[in-house]
């Protein structure tokens, strides 16, 4: 009779709470919680804020592009866009010029709202970044990028 032997961990760790994946998830959950608390004060969600940031950087993105970039499904992305449009923060044409894509753009109100909330969001990121010694930041960013690339298909 064959017994199931425990698998060897990917690196030396006392338990699962010391695994890289666990620690990455813990950091992501802490960041998301801090972002949620901060953005709630401004009447926005993380996907809404991310969408505003991306549209400020790259006006005219489609729902599909924004959904991918904000890590939500296309259906959820559409809900986010409709909410931002109803709030007067973005504009989209009623119909698509070609295909189904309706490019989104920030309105003046959307630009102003983004400006109001950016300082609060950047303060959250500053708290996170200050926990890492400055001389290690470049390596951390490269390592996180390598981790993501290793898992993307």
TrEMBL record:
Residues 17-149 form the HTH marR-type domain. PROSITE patterns: HTH_MARR_2 (PS50995). This is MarR family winged helix-turn-helix transcriptional regulator. InterPro entries: HTH_MarR-typ, MarR/SlyA-like, WH-like_DNA-bd_sf, WH_DNA-bd_sf. It holds the Pfam family MarR_2. It comes from the Bacteria.
